[in-house]
């Protein structure tokens, strides 16, 4: 699945347990679901109301000050104004003794700002935390990496992939929105603080460029300045091995802040380094992208996210076909489902128009109050991780009759018993800014997984319904099969897109389905998954799937109700098999980086921002 920076959809997955609404609004997790980001609009509207009242108060105060100024100025502009006039003499003395004091020490300005501050403090508990700023910044970096986006373009509000002379528009927002110098600085600083100079340098360079263009102008809301950007960028270049650039930027910094002793010392140290190693003057350091140790298939994954991988067309491979499916079920005889076979090995099927707009909306509404940060199994624990950015909620069938109806529809179509304890509850997932789920297995791969201690057996199938569409990105990628499936609203089981003569044609309202015990994992973008397991799964696994009919799915049962926990794992990939992953909005990446030491390992110590 993949990140959905501002382009999110809602994924529903049938899995274990129910959520707790208490954790749904936790600060620091706003960035991980677009529903949470959308809710952040409400407190900002309240802040806008407070600022409007403050501005009106200040405008009235300034109008009154202007009136006083004009009155006194008119007296001074009239050269014939005689101080011999007792009335004028009295008012002059009164003004100087009391009027000016009242103007200067007026409490109106402080009362206006106090009202603004009091209002902000009441709203503050509903505002995103600094962790959200960090998470959103890392999301932009993931999008930058996965979709090869240009930082300068992003700063202008343009989502373009530039490869050599080829420029591809990945996403065209309805409204062009550019970033400020301070915005770019904050993104770069998040990477800088992680020791990730690969990402820090281009963002800080853009910040420096924008600050230079507006030098001398001060924006109240800005936290940083040109000097801050130069300081961080100089040290980032030094850490990356480019001493020449570090020296040039440090000298520029001293033009604006000549009394900064720390930077003056750094300049001397850079000059000494270059004098001792003249080759560094012309040598350009090649900055490597941070490695992600746990993700061995990063290049393949990102390639599939960018190109949609190998997408065979039906006329080229006759065994990939479309049909109306009833599965010999009376439930579907009068309303068969449109079926599209997407891939044979692994066997992936797309069912179109599986849910209606009303049903999708209802499911999203039921889940939204319960959404909380998605977790993965880590031994005995369930933990939030950087390689899975989303929020999820678990819905039992008893929550609403619609979920019972949906179960019946899935069961009729697949032949599987999807009632508990034979299947897991419905999980609804909402991906956030740059939301994604890196390659993983939906079924358990480790003997330490809680799933192995449940008498229900392992997961054998996944059914994913996209509850909303996206404007770009978000595909589900099957790495070793070399294909990916784009997000299409209301599709059951996964993708709803085919490539015809090089053009992507979209079919709305569909579902993607695949079998877990075949060893092919997945992660879905805003989808609904239902997993069904078999008590004898260990013995049945590949043999059953190899012998089953493509048009007649096998029904698997479990003997015990599952625990209310998600058992997804990020285990090692078996030989010859690979996971499926969800691409980001228009980008994907790991978000986990190897931080370099704070200071240089060279013998000459260079002081970074904050050192004394």
From TrEMBL:
It is an enzyme of class 1 (oxidoreductase). Gene3D superfamilies: 6.10.140.1460, q2cbj1_9rhob like domain, Tetratricopeptide repeat domain. GO terms for cellular component: endoplasmic reticulum lumen. Residues 543-612 are annotated as: Disordered. Keywords: Dioxygenase, Endoplasmic reticulum, Glycoprotein, Iron, Metal-binding, Oxidoreductase, Signal, TPR repeat, Vitamin C. Residues 1-19 form the signal peptide. It is found in: Endoplasmic reticulum lumen. It catalyses: L-prolyl-[collagen] + 2-oxoglutarate + O2 = trans-4-hydroxy-L-prolyl-[collagen] + succinate + CO2. InterPro entries: P4H_N, P4HA-like, Pro_4_hyd_alph, TPR-like_helical_dom_sf, TPR_P4H. SUPFAM superfamilies: TPR-like. Pfam families: P4Ha_N, TPR_P4H. Heterotetramer of two alpha-3 chains and two beta chains (the beta chain is the multi-functional PDI). This is Prolyl 4-hydroxylase subunit alpha-3. It comes from Zalophus californianus (California sealion). The gene is P4HA3.
């Amino acid at each position: 699945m993949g990140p959905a920076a501002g382009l999110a959809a809602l994924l529903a997955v049938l899995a274990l347990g129910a959520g707790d609404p208490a954790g749904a609004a936790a600060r620091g997790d706003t960035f991980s679901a677009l529903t949470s980001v959308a809710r952040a609009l409400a407190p900002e509207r309240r802040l806008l109301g407070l600022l409007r009242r403050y501005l009106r108060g200040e405008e009235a105060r300034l109008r009154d000050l202007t009136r006083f100024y004009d009155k006194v100025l008119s007296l001074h502009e009239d050269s014939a104004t005689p101080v011999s006039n007792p009335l004028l003499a009295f008012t002059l003395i009164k003004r100087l003794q009391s009027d000016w004091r009242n103007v200067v020490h007026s409490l109106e300005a402080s009362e206006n700002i106090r009202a603004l501050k009091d209002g902000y403090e009441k709203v503050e508990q509903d505002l995103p935390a600094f962790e959200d700023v960090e998470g959103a910044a890392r999301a932009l970096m993931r999008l930058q990496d996965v979709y090869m986006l240009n930082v300068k373009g992003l700063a202008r509000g343009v989502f373009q992939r530039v490869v050599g002379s080829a420029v591809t528009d990945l996403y065209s927002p309805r409204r062009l929105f550019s970033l400020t110098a301070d915005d770019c600085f904050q993104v770069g600083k998040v990477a800088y603080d992680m020791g990730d100079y690969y990402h820090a340098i281009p963002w800080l360079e853009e910040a420096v460029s924008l600050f230079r263009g507006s030098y001398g102008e001060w924006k109240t809301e800005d936290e940083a300045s040109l000097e801050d950007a130069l300081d961080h960028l100089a040290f980032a270049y030094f850490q990356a091995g480019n001493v020449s650039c570090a020296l040039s930027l440090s000298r520029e910094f001293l033009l604006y802040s000549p009394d900064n002793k720390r930077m003056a010392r750094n300049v001397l140290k850079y000059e000494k380094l270059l004098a001792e190693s003249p080759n560094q003057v012309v040598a350009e350091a090649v900055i490597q992208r941070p490695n992600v140790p746990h993700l061995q298939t990063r290049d393949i994954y990102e390639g599939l996210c960018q190109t949609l991988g190998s997408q065979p067309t039906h006329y080229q491979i006759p065994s990939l076909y479309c049909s109306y499916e009833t599965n010999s079920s009376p439930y579907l005889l009068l309303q068969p489902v449109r079926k599209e076979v997407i891939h044979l090995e692994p066997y992936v099927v797309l069912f179109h128009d599986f849910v209606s707009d009303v049903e999708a909306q209802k499911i999203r509404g039921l889940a939204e109050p319960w959404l909380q940060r998605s977790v993965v199994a880590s031994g005995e624990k369930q933990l939030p991780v950087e390689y899975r950015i989303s929020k999820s909620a678990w819905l039992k069938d008893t929550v609403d009759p619609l979920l019972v109806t949906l179960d019946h529809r899935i069961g009729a179509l697949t032949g599987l018993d999807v009632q508990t304890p034979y299947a897991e509850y419905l999980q609804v997932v909402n991906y956030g800014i740059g939301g994604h789920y890196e390659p993983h297995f939906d079924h358990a791969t480790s003997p330490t997984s809680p799933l192995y201690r449940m008498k229900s057996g392992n997961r054998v199938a996944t059914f994913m319904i996209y509850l909303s569409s996206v404007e770009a990105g978000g595909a589900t990628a099957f790495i070793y099969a070399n294909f990916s499936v784009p997000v299409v609203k209301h599709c059951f089981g996964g993708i709803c897109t085919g490539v015809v003569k090089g053009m992507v044609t979209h079919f709305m309202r569909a579902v993607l389905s695949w079998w877990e015990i075949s060893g092919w994992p997945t992660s879905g973008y805003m989808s609904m998954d239902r997993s069904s397991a078999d008590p004898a799964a260990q013995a049945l696994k590949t043999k059953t799937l190899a012998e089953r009919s493509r048009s007649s799915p096998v029904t698997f049962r479990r003997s015990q109700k599952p625990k209310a926990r998600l058992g997804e794992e990020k285990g090692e990939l078996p030989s010859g098999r690979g996971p499926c992953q969800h691409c980001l909005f228009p980008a994907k990446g790991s978000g986990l980086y190897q931080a370099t030491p704070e200071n240089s390992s060279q013998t000459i110590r260079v002081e970074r921002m904050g050192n004394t």
